[in-house]
Amino acid sequence: MDILAVEGLTVRLTAHPAHTTILEDVAVRVSPGEVLGIVGESGSGKSMLALSIMGLLPPALAMSARSIVLLGKELAGQPREAWRVHRGRDMAMIFQEPMTSLNPVMRVGMQIEEVLRWRGGMRGGAAWRRALELLEQVEIPSPRSRLNAYPHELSGGMRQRVMIAIALAASPRLLIADEPSTALDVTVQAQLLDLLRGLRRDAGLSLILITHDLGVIAEIADRVMVLYAGRVAETAPVRTLFDAPAHPYMQVLLASIPDITSRRARLATIPGTVPGALNMPPGCRFAPRCAYRHAMCEQAPPELRRLSAEHEAACPRPFGELPP
């Protein structure tokens, strides 16, 4: 049984007369112990998808879905109180920027103990000892002294580890990491990835990893979902996606990665930008930037087409099936 299975997830901006769609008919599934990578440019809807799964959308946004099943329990159509029961206990999230996500006027230990009190029923010395164990688990140097530190006294890598400790406090089965390696140097990023791999192995966590870094995806993910302008462009096992991408968007993303062995004078680029929520094209949302667009691409949104058992692409003429 999947840890998470989402079908037909759509998010709309209700304040706009046309009920602007930000995410449209997105499907997500995560198996036990699996790492699902989600990639795409800024504005593609990656963080919005994570907040939707967590039930943390602001009131200005309305979410609907055919089904959202977490650990066998249906959450679609349930009130906010039903989601609150599962947040922290069954699924948790590492937010994108730890400096703004952590409370700047509370000591690190108190922020971890707060989760333990609400989700674990721990008090006093038991909560303090468990908070210390969590900091040791995420490999923070001198964890005993860090319990009494404020967030501004820690480095970016340490703050990110504190966020992971808070997320792990109630022993969730699913962890959503939104750009966990942003603004970290290469050495700290490697340490963080090793930590996530260890947590997956030792605690049996399932992980949704949101990132811009395709190198991180290649290193840690089992399966990848490519988002563009709120729609799924492609899903595939990580090796299939890197060796034989079917959607033109994934092709140009891979082509834009610098290659130190190439003598190419200029990097490949994608013309234009991701369309805004109020300016979405009627057909394929990538068509205005696609070098292989066809008349059919501008008529209706393409549906995901199955190319193999685990490979799907939302393109009427995907690479590997028909010549572009």
CATH top level class name of the domain at 4-227: Alpha Beta
Give the terminus-to-terminus CA distance.
Answer: 38 Å
Total of DSSP H or I helical runs spanning 4+ residues: 11
CATH architecture label of the domain at 4-227: 3-Layer(aba) Sandwich
Largest sheet, spatial ordering of strands: 7-8-9-3-10-11-13-12
Roughly how many Å is the radius of gyration?
21 Å
What is CATH's topology name of the domain at 4-227?
A: Rossmann fold
Shape: globular
Sheet having the most strands: 8 strands, mixed
User: What fraction, in percent, of the residue positions are helical?
Assistant: 25-40%
Can you count the beta strands?
13
CATH superfamily grouping of the domain at 4-227: P-loop containing nucleotide triphosphate hydrolases
Tags for this entry?
324 residues; alpha/beta; Rossmann fold; eight-stranded mixed β-sheet; 32% helix; globular
Task: Give an overview of the whole structure.
This protein is α/β, with parallel strands linked by helices. The chain has a domain at 4-227: 3-Layer(aba) Sandwich (Rossmann fold). Helix content is 32%, strand content 22%. It has eleven helices and 13 strands. It has helices at residues 46-54, 80-86, 98-101, 108-120, 124-137, 143-146, 156-168, 186-203, 214-220, 238-243, 248-255, and strands at 4-13, 20-30, 35-39, 61-64, 67-70, 73-74, 91-94, 174-178, 206-210, 223-228, 231-237, 305-308, 311-313. The strands form two sheets. Strands 7-8-9-3-10-11-13-12 form an eight-stranded mixed β-sheet, sandwiched between helices. Strands 1, 2, 4, 5 and 6 form a five-stranded antiparallel β-sheet that branches. A hairpin with a 2-residue loop joins strand 12 (305-308) and strand 13 (311-313). Helix 4 packs across helix 5 (124-137) and helix 5 (124-137) packs across helix 7. The longest helix has 18 residues, at 186-203. The model has no long low-confidence stretch (mean pLDDT 88).
